[in-house]
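Chain A, query sequence.
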Amino acid sequence: MLREKLTDYHCPRWNELPEFPLYRDQAIMIITTALSPFAEEGEPLVTPAMINNYVKLKLVPSPEKKKYDRKQISALIIFSLFKRVFSMYETAHLMTCLVDMHGYEDAYNLFCEQLEAYLTMFSLQGQIRRVQTDDPAYRLMTDALSAVLSKTIVQESLEELSLLRGEGTLGEKPAKPKTPKEKTPKEKQAKKKAAKEKLPEI
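Chain A, predicted structure.
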């Protein structure tokens, strides 16, 4: 159950991320662990190819000497969660607005705090309500988080309903109904002949 998995969820804050830069595979491990409750079966949260693409398109800061520091890791955590709903460019625009107003560290910590606040709200009330704020960048981020979590909630509800109906998980293809095998012309002729022979005599 989503509520059980996320009741005590903690998103690592800026100061909890590794102090020293990491190689890409190590960074992927940190990101995957941070977002493990949101992982979907058969769909990795982040891959080397995804990271290379983000860096190539300059959507996240470039690593120095192939190592990723807090700035890159925090950005990749946000990208890895928001990609469930938003395009790379939408997420990059959202992050730019947030970082311009709050800086990298505060922007990331706001993301973590609101993610946890929404999860607590859902756990206790079964719903997510919009946050009232005069900060346009913060409101944008909270609305984006709401969209991502709402999708996660709907997917779990569909999964539960599917299992109750005996249809298996959503990732499984439904079994195709068996269609009768088409008879060949010879088989059709033989069937007609057999039917005539069984007709009662008048």
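The beta strands are 22-23, 67-68. DSSP finds seven helices and two strands in the chain.
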